[in-house]
Every structure is written in C-alpha cells, then in structure tokens.
Amino acid sequence: MFLFLGLYLQMILGYSPLKSGFAFLPFTAGIIVFAGIASALLPKVGPKPLMVPGLLSAAVGLLLLTRITPETAYITHVLPALLIMSSGMALVFIPLTTTSLHAVSNHDTGVASAMINTSQQIGGSLGTALLNTVAATATTTYIATHKTMGKSLQPFAMTHGFTTAFTVSAGLLFVGAIVLAFFINIGKEAVVETEGVLAH
Fold it and tell me: Domain range holding 185?
C-alpha cells in the first residue's frame, strides 16, 4: 500500500518526498491511538473480536483508495482512507502475537517469535511483488485501450494500476477476515496464558 500510495502522491499529485512523508503521518498517529485501544480491549474480548473487524476496516480503507484519480485531493480521498486503515491494522497487529504464540511452550517461544517475524518479511516481499505485477499489468492494459487520451494518458494509466492493486489488496484482506472468523477460535483466556509465556 505504501509503495503505490507514495508513487501516487509524488508522481501524480506532485508531492515532494518530504511532503509525502508528512502525508503518511496520520496513518502513524492512527496506529498509535488504536494500538492503545486494542491493548486495553485484548484481555477483555480476546483476539478474534479485534482482528476480524480490523481486517475489514483495513479493507474498507483500501477500497476508499480505489476512488482516487489524478484529479482528486489528498484531504478528501487519501486522508480518510489512511485513518480507517490505521485503525484496522492496529486492531490486527496487537492480537497477532497472542494468536501466533497460542499453545507454544515456553522453550519454543523464541523460535516461534522468529518465525512470525520471518513470515511477515517474506509475506511482505511476496505481496509487494505480486501487487507490482498486478499494477503493471493494469497500467499496460489501460494504455493499450485508451490511446486516444493523448498527454493525459500516463497519469490516468498509472492511477488505474494503483487502484487495481488496492482492489486486489482489499480482496485479500476480506478473505483473511473470513478465514479468521471461521478458523481462529482463541478466547480471551489465551491472552493471559500467552502473556505468561512472553514474561518468561
């Protein structure tokens, strides 16, 4: 998401790298605020009631980004999506460790944590490669079918590629939410158990 949104801000809206960095600050602020909320709620409700709505919220934020064009403004189209996505991702990140380390014995906690980090890095790399391919294909197809647009073709084609990648990302998050809803059955009592494992 950050890759395509950063390209959109700089190459389409004409933001400088510094201004683009500031444009992402609301996402960071949202993560901080909702991470605190998630941490407080986790022992009371357990992981699933946080993670499923979190994935759905993040997906909604990505769907909002599919509405961007070379003519839309940051404040009306990008900022609301960033805030919604940050709230959703915070609700996912905080319970993730608890869910991943559930039923892991004390002496395997370090290995399990390393596997979580490794999986996140590999998943992020593979996801970026996949979505890059999706965006590039969508951009190429748009150019091939809109040759009469003239000089305005390039920004619209690039934006179409970005929004296609956002759509695919949202779809993956929706699938993830469905999987969590039906296959993750960890109650709030697991939070206390996992915190005890981490304390050791």
Answer: 2-199
